[in-house]
Description:
5 helices
Amino acid sequence: MAQxxxxxxxxxxxxxxxxxxxxxxxxxxxxxxxxxxxRLTPERAxxxxxxxxxxxxxxxxxxxxxxxxxxxxxxxxxxxxxxAVLKCNMAEAVADWVRDDLSQLTxxxxxxxxRTVRNFAAYHCRSRNNIIGAMMSEHGRGNALDVRAITLVNxxxxxxxxVQVPRDFRESWKKSVxxxxxxxxxxxxxxxxxxxxxxxxxxxxxxYRAMCQWEVRVPEDKPSPELASTGxxxxxxxxxxxx
Length: 243
Ligand SMILES: [Zn+2]
């Protein structure tokens, strides 16, 4: 009876002897999925992992995903168009915002369900505002998203910077992103965000407040004169040369 035969006791090994388990070279341990990766399930978002991005320079990041859609509590999807390559934590924050705030706001304030969030920029290796020599943008770490517009199930396209869009909706959008992200830049912030809303999860030293800069304008508002000098206002076309 095989079961009843006692196994030989393991031989004690001396201090100079290598324990049997350590003799076989263990394969290098592959790191498991991040906590964010584990949380970001298909019930919350369609966000497959993508390879880590290394460089150029300081750009890149690990734990990157491609956020293709946010899944709402009724399992309907809000498309991210085009899909946004983001760091997992940022993608998760965007998914939560779309799911818990933006989709509710559109249904409540605009009377139609949210269909698409238009991604204007996500991961993108560049300096801040594309200025040569400026600090690297959070876009270069996959930690920022620019939203140009959303589309609704009723076919309408809504631009959050458009003064004709109901003001309470834009105010609620601003309040919701400023509560969730550490940087929010929109019209009236620096002249580079007149046609889109930038959000990111930049880490600031403790004691530094989040940045929430978005002037929700009313139709009669004119851009402040300082903006005119930053190049955001198109200059008149040069007059044709007359010989
Ligand atoms: Zn941006």
